[in-house]
Design a protein that fits this description.
The chain is mainly beta and 53 residues long. It is built from one helix and three strands; from the N terminus they run E-E-E-H. It is globular, with a radius of gyration of 10 Å. The structure holds zinc ion. Zinc ion (ZN) binds next to strand 2.
Length: 53
């Protein structure tokens, strides 16, 4: 499940160490249309948004 950082609203995996506090979200926001829209390197192991979700 993706987690949205409370600091800058960036999206991360639950086990990512790049955010201090965040809120789990059930699905990616509409503005996220591809894996390339997820900036943090914690998503790098995924090839597509379908795999990440
Ligand atoms: Zn991250």
């Amino acid at each position: 499940m993706p987690v949205m950082s409370s600091d800058d609203f960036s999206l991360h995996r639950e086990d990512c160490g790049e955010f201090d506090d965040g809120m789990p979200i059930s699905s990616f926001p509409d503005e996220v249309t591809s894996i390339d829209d997820l900036d943090c390197e914690c998503w790098n192991e995924f090839d597509s948004l379908a795999d990440a979700g």
